[in-house]
Amino acid sequence: AHLDRIAAVDDRVHAFLHVDTEGALAAARVVDERRAAGEELGPLAGVPVAVKDVLTTKGVPTTVGSKILEGWRPPYDSTIVERLRAAGTVMLGKTNMDEFAMGSSTEYSAYGPTRNPWDLERIPGGSGGGSAAALAAYEAPLSIGSDTGGSIRQPGAVTGTVGAKPTYGGTSRYGLVAFSSSLDTPGPCARTVLDAALLHAVIGGHDPRDSTSIPQPVPDVVAAAKRGATGDLTGVKLGVVTEFSGDGAEPGVVAAFRDSVEALTKLGAEIVEVSCPHFQYALPAYYLIAPSECSSNLARFDGVRFGLRVGDDGNRSLEEVMSLTRDAGFGPEVKRRIMLGTYALSSGYYDAYYGQAQKVRTLITRDFTAAFEQVDALISPTTPFVAFPMGSRTSDPYQMYLADLFTIPSNLYGGPGISVPCGLSEGLPVGLQVMAPTMADDRMYRVAAALE
Ligand code: GLN
Fold first, then answer.
1. Per the CB 3.0–4.6 Å rule, which of 25, 247, 259, 285 could disulfide with 357?
2. Dihedral angle, C-alpha 302, 307, 311, 314, nearest 10 °
3. CB of 151 closer than 6 A to ligand 1?
4. Predicted structure pTM score
5. pLDDT of 33-75, one tens digit each?
6. Ligand 1 center to residue 25 CA distance, Å?
7. Is 127 a catalytic residue?
8. Which of 78, 104, 127, 425 is catalytic?
9. What is the side-by-side strand order in the sheet with 417-425?
10. Which domains does the chain have, with CATH numbers?
């Protein structure tokens, strides 16, 4: 049924870069056979799932939305995909994204944009617009995203779906094509909080193949989501981030957020204002740290090891082929970030830019630590504005970067964040973000589930 749905609507939505019809039907058949044989099945046996094209899938094209990896079929599965298969899920295909996960609208995909199912003239968020649009268009019940600065939560907010960024290190980065290694976090996308929790439980947990993976089990996010769904938040203390509660967000977003805060109060939560004075520096710090790490990570795309190779006619030097390949293979936003990052890391500038940004990162972490001494979780709107018209922010990078104003702090800190639908503004979905302390992912699921 999902393959039929994809066939019916995806020429308009373009959530998928690759639909693995044969692989999906084969996986579904295996589940059927195992069920018929009375074998024990995985926790999500037979449930279709769409995977952001940032995760390697053995033998199935993985492009990261870039021309530089066009035609590349990885020889191995990422840990997330391996765990999805072990749980019995049926992978439908790979979803569209901004090139190398750099963007907030999926307009920077080298394969054309994804459209928001709520209004096809608007963006579905990014970088994981494909994973969110696939849910909103009922092409998949579950999907996987990756969140470096907001790429799971912001698309969730603008498509009226749920997106959770787990604690950094709570989900494995093995086989996740690296953008900014100290921030990249794969996570679950779904249409309900409980569905996201069920998916989170399957993909999360320690992985010895990722050196930053936390050697602890996933908090019981499923039990927490079920508890939250009872609608009782008595004894839960929530902090509204002063700096993010009004200024900088559209009036319709602020109104929907305020209504939800009231709803949370009615469910028994105690609401207090919490000031996080350094959050206002998160965006500039992020745009030094993320490009710096990207400039280093993307050095591996040299035209030799995988994907595209341009100008290799037998007469050119290795350097020339490398340069021609990178020039043809990377899009403008990726080039902008590589140049920014290379500059910020160069000797003489390192202390002034990268070093300074790392200090800001520490101050933001301190803001979170102080806040969580007062409250169980922090809340804010997920994004300053609802889904914007396609093309309206592509000419000014800063306008695009602003989409992640409220989501970036928790990436710099490493704690979990979730976006849950919290109403409409002019007919378009608004998201509410819940942020929790590191490894307290269960808390955010409880609060988010109570709002549904
Ligand atoms: N929009 C942000 C960026 O462009 C975040 C991207 C992400 O989370 N992958 O970097």
1. 285
2. 90
3. yes
4. 0.98
5. 999 999 999 999 999 999 999 999 999 999 999 999 999 999 9
6. 33
7. yes
8. 127
9. 16-19, 90-95, 48-52, 142-147, 185-190, 162-165, 417-425, 428-435, 377-381, 237-241, 270-274
10. 2-282+357-451 (3.90.1300.10)
